[in-house]
Design goal:
The chain has three helices and three strands, in the order αββαβα. With 104 residues, the protein is of the alpha+beta class. It has a three-stranded mixed sheet, covered by helices on one side.
């Protein structure tokens, strides 16, 4: 019997990849400071696109340390993957809104 090897990234690597990609999103549409950071996203936050219409939300990076949010990101990874230029996309807006209201 062969052992299946998971092609999932370790949790820390996945979170690092999310942050790296989110910091480079939308460079054509937004204004950036001298360090290349978007002006409309406060320090300590990142952008998440949610639902079919890809509504844009700015959320605290501290959410990435919460198990509930990590599970939501894992589900998004399974559905959309993390290696694309669409940004971090969460498929279900109701779940996202419910979770973020609980985390506040």
């Amino acid at each position: 019997m062969a052992i299946k090897r998971s092609n999932k990234l370790p949790q820390a690597a996945m979170l690092e990849q999310i942050l790296k990609r989110c910091s480079s999103l939308g460079k054509k549409r937004q204004s950036y400071d001298e360090q290349g950071l978007p002006l409309d996203v406060p320090k300590g936050h990142f952008v998440v696109y949610v639902g079919e219409n890809r509504s844009r939300y700015i959320v605290p990076i501290s959410y990435l340390t919460r198990l509930e949010f990590q599970i939501l990101v894992q589900h998004a990874d399974e559905e959309f993957g993390l290696s694309h230029d669409m940004g971090l996309t969460i498929p279900c807006e109701k779940v996202f809104q419910s979770l973020t209201s609980m985390l506040r």
